[in-house]
Amino acid sequence: MESGKRVWFRLRSDRRAVVCMVILALEVLCVLLLPPLLGLEPNVTDRTAGFWAAPSAEHWLGTDDVGRDILARLICGGRISLLVGFAAAAINLAVGVPLGLLAGYRRGAWEFWIMRLADVFQSFPNIVLTLCLVSLMGASVLNLVLVLGLLGWPGIARLVYGNVLSVREKEYILAVRALGGRTGTILYRNVLPNAVAPVWAALGQRVGRAILSESSLSFLGVGIRPPQASWGNLMQSASSLAVLTGRPWVWLPPGLLIVLTVVCLQILGNALRDAMDPRAARKER
Amino acid sequence: MAQYIRRRLITAIPVFFGITILVFLLVDLAPGDLTDLMGEGAAGETERAAMEAALGLDQPLPTRYALWLAGLFHGDLGRSYHYGQEVSELIIQRLWPSLLLTGTGVVLAVVIAVPLGMLAAWEPRGGWGRLAHLFTVFGSAVPGFFLALAAIFLFSVKLGWLPASGMYRAAGGGGAGDLLRHLILPAGIIGLSNVGGILRQTQSACLEVLGEDYIMTARAKGLRERVVLVRHALRSALIPVLTSILTHIPHIIGGSVVVERIFGWPGMGSLMFSAVSGRDFNVIMGVTVVMALAVLLTSLLLDVVYGLVDPRVRYGER
Known about the structure:
The complex is a heterodimer of chains A (285) and B (318). Chain A is built from 14 helices and no strands. The longest helix of chain A has 37 residues, at 70-106. Chain A is mainly alpha-helical. Chain B is built from 14 helices and no strands.
């Protein structure tokens, strides 16, 4: 297990990782602080500007089909998209890590049934199941987070499971067991820290995937519903040719923000993996 | 070998039941049912009860599940509320366009990803390696719908080369050329958005193989580099590459559902979307269960093929 300080040091010396961290931090700060600071009103119609106004000094990205400021909606939509991404990934972890630990450590029936359950979930194209659940339960931010969170656990569980299988055979685990440690304590204190490293790296990818799923569904009108904005449903109007060709400032910024965010998350995730396990990183090169 | 196959089949049985139970519960526990839709507004208590009895909705949950499962074994998935057709018929109609679209997409992805992954493993720091890196970073980060919008913007609107929706022209279409023109954009997008994943796994599989001793032997024998790469490296990397393609299948199907919807492609994905928005429960259950069972079947076949090809697999499993 690498100490946190050394991981941080290595991460800091990776230039690309630092750039990605700064970009992500800026995004989070912007969506959190700008709305209250600037008094942004994403749902208010500006009658003087009118519908579909072109970018101007007052509305940097113009206005939408009912005269709402697109920049304000972009910033507030970022709140929802980032929230859905991070919250769903957190639920992925909260469900996947314990199940992976149990399956790998207890083996036997636990292993069989948990892994079969993972097989069941992984047989479905993720977006199809999400689509069904979200539209049947009703589209809301909470439902979307719950569904994306509860469907994405098998990948994490498999990662943890694979690691636990090798960790449980190590001598130090045998030593703690011989000393009479309780299973729960061993799992938490000894197995978990040694098996969890690749999960932190997968986390970046998870957040990115959740953001992509959310935006795809919202774009198609079955995720976050207007008037609530998200990066996906801001692009919805681009399914009309007039907007697609005549007003690229409507759909290009949210699309580019999604790409930028997901790319940064991925690079950061990989950098974190390399920082935690420098030997593996060197071998790969 | 027979024992290995038997063992593999036994693990697939609980997964099969898990899939069917999940699909059934998913739709059954959702708020609202068919009587709400069919008897909108007018229906009173007695009509509603009669309707429930006619649809079998008054039975307890396990009975309904058993009936649905029995139907599934007979290929009977019920009737679509919206289309008035048998669901199985609907699915068969939509299967061919979906297979055509997704299949072409997969072929495109493989044709780009496998050679590029191999070259990138061979020369990680050269131009190929860099190109591959770009693909892996951006390939999975650009949402399919954004790519679709950009492609429609460029190829359909600005250049006017390719149609932006449908499978055939509305009037006078129908030939193979027409189909091909409609296929290029959606299949290209499915292909492009899946290059990243397959590429990364091909690259790491080839990297591993290139480090093996027999590659060094082959080089020391003075074989040409091309022969070393294709005959010795790619051959042994083929199994992990095949696995990576097949493990991507659920992901690929998921992506093509979105692409079908955007391009108005008359496949299973579009069917799914219209069923979900119209709450056509039998269609939702039918399509999801067929998709999941297809994935289960592929993984099962794959494992059996592995067992046949590679004896290590058979002995490795407890």
